[in-house]
Amino acid sequence: MSVETRQIFGIVRMPAGFAGLLPALILIALFFVVPVLALLLRSITEPAPGLQNYATLLGDGTYARVFFNTFLVAAVVTAVTVLVAFPVAWMLAIMPAAIASIVFGIIILSMWTNLLTRTYAWMVLLQRTGVINRTLMAAGIIDLPLPLINNLTGVTIGMVYIMLPFMILPLVGTLRAIDPMTLRAASLCGASPFQAFRRILLPLSLPGIAAGGLMVFVMSLGYFVTPALLGGTSNMMLAEMIAQMIQSLLNWGLGSAAAFILLVVTMALYALQLRLVGARRVTGGV
Fold this sequence. Notes:
- Residues 5-12 and 282-286 have low confidence and may be disordered.
- This protein has helices at residues 3-8, 18-45, 52-59, 61-94, 97-112, 115-126, 131-138, 152-176, 180-188, 193-204, 206-221, 225-231, 238-248, 252-283.
- The protein is globular.
- It is mainly alpha-helical.
- It has 14 helices and no strands.
- It is 78% helix and 0% strand.
């Protein structure tokens, strides 16, 4: 078909590669864009048109406490996960490949275990008559059982255990890319192990920490099962509140508004992470 014929019938050739992307774009539109727009529409139309749902969420002290608790738990879980995951990732990066593959397989295997099963296991371990309290009392370390469940401590322990693989995976890739000769050169120049860690290893591993930290923080914001079982009513998080609004109270407008706020915050954090990491890569700053 000639160029003139295509112009007459209005046939326009798609850009190269667009046809291959079209199915993915359709799936994104159907399963992400359309639901998000429906969520936004419900949040401003039910029970009446307006922004009263957002005003209620942002102005009521009860809902504000749930928002604060959600971000507090997510921040604490992210910080503890980084502290626990970094030495594990460094160990995987420097140990022999055969042993590292075994340890790596064990970490991946934990991700395949049912989430509800793992949470119930922690409920058994952390309760007042659980293995942890009984072991500590038998060793004479404590006299009375520690309150390890139905509080922030229980939520943090359970969620850190679940989030560890998501922090270890990006950290291992980043740490393995660091040339060991860099640390050896720092040692030869008189740097102490702490100085080498603070001025060389930690700055070079920041992209992996940022990627894993963002993943853990965002996933923690929307977690439901573990906080509900290990945290109790005093530590309610936003996902649990949304579920109660929709399933128990049938308040679709308020629940949709809360979900949309959570989505906006998540996307803003992701954009901030991309901007900070991108600026760091461009400047090459350490």
